[in-house]
Amino acid sequence: MNKVEIYDPAMCCSTGVCGPGVDPELLRVSAMLNVLAGEGKTIVRYGLSENPMAFVMSKAVNDIILNDGVEALPVTVVDGEIRKKGAYPSNTELAKWSGMTEDQLESLISKAQKPVAQ
């Protein structure tokens, strides 16, 4: 399995989906990570406020912050390689980078689009 790590900017909590003004992009990422976790995938998120040592310990992420500033966050690293900076990965990118095949991805998208029975 691929190791996917997301380095988040400083936020009010570990997911950034708290408080009265929830960012829809953070909500999308959080929801997708929950779906992927349900499929047995693991994506690690590090928050600058909560896990500052993770930023220091990753030379690649530390270099980005030193050169571009914290404005370059979020940064996504897959198997030690920077894949995206300055924006969160799309749902497709997250699924592919976590080791899903196209068929698994299509199934996942179909499941996510079905309305939940109440």
List the topology elements.
Elements lengths: L3 E5 L15 H15 L4 E5 L4 H6 L1 H10 L6 E4 L2 E5 L5 H7 L4 H12 L5
Parallel strand pairs: 1-2
Antiparallel strand pairs: 1-3, 3-4
How would you describe this structure to a colleague?
This protein is an alpha+beta fold and 118 residues long. It has one domain (4-113): Glutaredoxin (3-Layer(aba) Sandwich). Helix content is 42%, strand content 16%. The chain has helices at residues 24-38, 52-57, 59-68, 91-97, 102-113, and strands at residues 4-8, 43-47, 75-78, 81-85. It has a four-stranded mixed sheet. Helix 1 (24-38) links the parallel strand 1 and strand 2 (43-47). The protein is globular. The mean pLDDT is 85.
The helix content is 40-55%
**Would you give the CATH topology?**
Glutaredoxin
Low-confidence stretches: none
Our count of helices gives 5
Structural class based on helices, strands and sheet pairing:
alpha+beta
Mind describing the biggest β-sheet?
A: 4 strands, mixed
Assembly form of the protein = single chain
Question: At CATH's second level, what is the architecture?
Answer: 3-Layer(aba) Sandwich
How do the strands line up in the largest sheet?
2-1-3-4
SSE ordering: EHEHHEEHH
- Averaging pLDDT over every residue, what do you get? 85
Strand fraction: 15-25%
Q: Please report the total strand number as a whole number.
A: 4
What Rg do the Cα atoms give? 15 Å
Query: Could you name the CATH homologous superfamily?
Result: Glutaredoxin
CATH top level is Alpha Beta
Q: How many individual domains?
A: 1
User: What is the 3D form?
Assistant: globular
Give the CA-CA distance, first to last residue: 35 Å
